[in-house]
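Supplementary material to the annual report.
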Amino acid sequence: MKLEGKKTLWKEYQKEIASDNYFYARSCIRQNFFPASETTFLRVLREELGKTIHEDARHTTCTGIVYHSDLVTIETTMTVIARQFSLMTQSGYLNYVASCITSFGLYTEILDMWEHFPEMEQKAREMLWKATKREFEKPKSLAHASDIIYKFRNEIAAKSKYKLINLNTGQPLKVVEHIGCHYSKMFPHKGIGGAEYPYVLVGMIEAFGGEVVDYPERRHCCGFGFRQYIVKANRGFSIASSRKKFESMTPYKPDFILTNCPGCPYFLDRWQYAISEMEGITYGENGHGIPVLTYEELTGIVLGYNPWDLGLQTHQVAVEPLLDKIGIPYDLSQKYLGSDGEFIGKPEKPSVLKVY
Amino acid sequence: MAKDFGYTISCDRQIDFDKLSRSMYLEVKKAEPSVDACISCGTCAATCTAGQFTDFSLRKFILLLRRGDSLSVIQSIDKCMLCGKCQLVCPMGVNTRGLIYSIQVISRRIECRNRRVVNKM
Amino acid sequence: MKHVLVIGGGVAGMEASVRLSQMGYAVSIVEQSDKLGGKLNRWHSLSPDNSNASDLLGKLKSQIHQGIHKHLNTEVLSVIKNKLHFVVGLSDGTDLKTDAILVSTGFDVFDAQKKEEYGYGIYDNVITSADLEQIFRDEDELKTTSGTAPKRIGIIHCVGSRDEKAGHTYCSQVCCITAVKQAIEIKEHLPDSEVFCFYMDLRMFGRKFEDIYRDAQVKHGIQFIRGRLSEAFENPDGSVMLKAEDTLLGKPLKMNVDKVILMVGMIASAKTKKIKELLNLQIEDDGFYSIADTHYESTKSSVPGIFVAGACTGPKTIENTINDARAAAIQISEYLKQ
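Predicted assembly:
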């Protein structure tokens, strides 16, 4: 593979990312799936990078989940999004940052639609006014939260306590990356590096000292697809999609999978458990799975944050083998204790997948 | 014991070319070399008596053999009544009747081979 | 003696120059590169007779006599139209007075890197039809980057053609037959290899084209899969995984090949865009020059005194390009006699 060819393409897919003063909108599902990721993002921005980032407790879902499950109309979606923008306007911000890939995709889609059909924007303004007496400005810049980490990847790397290097071999860790479909497949120019060879996560992995492994089914969807998972009868198709990816990446022996979407890390993590229970197959080393990280978790790891503060104990695939490789200490007796020191419960032991 | 979560992992519909064997096509081609001229126009399948009432399609069977899915062909090849109309309409001069006959013969040979393997077990 | 300026010294420009000179006109050719012949310089063999491109080039060149004035490595800088003639400024310092202009600015080969998902310039074993001609021309063998003979080769039709995303919705005409020609050549060089052509439609419009296609299947065992390549990926061993739908079976298909050849189409040349501005010519949505009448005046441009020939008015075979050049010569002669 010729890296030069990729670099040429990457140059064509750069976008302006605001350097400070962000309005942050959380994801509906990430706080349950990977509970510490968003907190870590805010901590990194505020404490490590000294940025101003504002949240508004009144913000709601972007409607992404129901929109992609065909349960709401586009009018509802764009009015809800208009309301999010009005919260941003009201708090005096212009730079909108979405934690969720599907939200980011949906905001991009709505802004694009308004550009092509100004009457729809007018309609959104009217509906928002009727419903809430609110008004809004469109964001000056729209970014996904992974874009922000990407932008400051070198500053973060400079502050990092750990590099993505295998302590035993001295070699860079091998990382496969998986981009959420709605990051750039719909609007390639809105994603760092475009849609075919996205650079947003690659840039982080490189900056943090790891080695990116490109594998044949990299572009394949993780299989979440909303209704494909939500409707139980469709789950076979969801899990088969993840399996296709695992089978394709396994020969490269990746040390972990890095993701930037709410759904992908969840499915890539949990389906490894389900596949192991249904078929007895595991994809990592010695009966383990391949650890799956969010980019905030990865950032927290290299910055030396306590793994249990990063929520790594909520993963189905054990992350400890990866921590061992990097040389990050962890206290197993603290693993299932909450921030207040209280026992948070312990998952049932899988029958095949090895855990700590 | 495999756990039952209430769903199964879907089978892959994708033709994985590298995992399939084209040996039956090569056998068929040896018996009836004109099969190579087929361009999948479908005239044979349109005129076929069997095709009106069953899934018989010579066009499709040739393709299945070329991709390596012999089983589907073996299961359906006997639905042909060897009337010969397909040969009359083929624009590429494929000896379709001879071709079907060859596929039938080779299918039986393969079935016998498989049965012998089963008997041994 | 009336004078005709020919802009572009490829096949159309050369042939038209010779014919116009035979008719008794003074002819000058302006060519941006250092030699005449255009894309023919980079091609190995031609369909449907597998003749050598260099033989044809030699034939065309042999007729370019001393009387035809060549301006190589030269650009047209300015054109001013008077009542009776054009005054043309060239980059070599020459100022020409000419009675008619023939534009034969040809085509550019589609830049395969624009089809990002096919990995040209990224995956080691992805090359274009033009690259393959160069390999054959240099009498090299087709090899993988690790130096082995490829066991399986995938030929991809319509790269940059019939593709709105690539900006070219038209058919480039020659790629289908070139694919079949190259597939046969590969089989002749590497008889043990398997060759697969991935196509949307096979457009075998020319005389003998269909026969060659049949030979490809029957004599050479080349296989045709109706389905357009959706994306390619490099495997750890450098082979390339192709994903297409086998549309005749209605199923997605993946196949690993050792080498991929992209059949790059013809697009309007960068020169065409430049000359259009200088001469106030019209181009159509496809980027090629407009012509006065599709059937009857295919070499007349929208400006009196300016004519067009060859692939600058749309993709053409060499046969049609040469005929076009001769037609242009006749049309120019009629114009100059008025």
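Chain A has a mean pLDDT of 96.
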